[in-house]
Predict the 3D structure of the following.
Amino acid sequence: MGPVNRPLDLEWLEDFLALSESGNFSRAAQARNIAQPAFSRHIRSLEEWAGVELIDRSQHPASVTPAGEVMLASARDVVLRLSQARTRASEVHEQAARSLRFAATHVLSLAFFPGWLQRMEQQTSSQLGPIHMVSDSFRACEELMLHRRVQFLLCYGHPAVPTRLAAPDFEFASVGSDRLLPVSAPDPSGAALHPIRDVDGPPTAMLAYSEESWLGQMMQVRMRHVADPMRFKPVVTSHHTGLLKNLALSGRGLAWLPEILVSAELADGRLVAADPIEEAAGDRDGNAAWRMPLEIYVFRATSGQTPMAEALWAQIQAR
């Protein structure tokens, strides 16, 4: 008898364990709820796979050979581990079906998502989750959505700035609004240390968004005048909004920052508006040329969602 190059069937191991306990082919087959001829074939197939006899059939009751004893110890371990793995896999699958996977841009993951999540839970009078959150740049979050590694993407958006998350594979809903405001640290008098000046004055030191920044790309489309070198001189460029905020607080320059991120600093005077007051029709604050409205979007794939994710999307759309 020699080893056979064939797959190993888990049932053969389970039958082998049953036979080793009973020592009787008929009783073992009955315990395994299988016909005895088929049971005997399973044992023979296992022996062919192992390349040695595992059962001494000359004795009554049948006993395990020395080679069979070696196989027996491993068989018990394999069957136990696979049983545990099956149970764990089922638990993980059930948990995954109940979980929600979000990606969010840095600013919104910190300044918007916690409050929005609380409001969503208050509407249902129950907690959503378990929730897995990834906070990263827009492009990184977009990649996660494109590869279906998350179910929802929370980000800033503007109708004039397209993304790769397009119909019919993806859809979105607006869940809030914000604005990009030009802000600066104050000077001793409380005015902006780095104000937006007239074109005749020296250019204002600007903390600029880099080309890969999603907010920077929206500004390029909607606020082209911000790139005027006669008015603004970039002194630091970064895609990280939090870094630009900290630099603005330290007085390094003017930055366009989301209002949701700087509302506390504007309220206590650590940052002030850097744009001149210009009355504009239809603008509630004036300064329409220097302040950019933003929508807060939630994107999702239109197919392959779990019941929990579908329920949350229905709730989002109902608002």
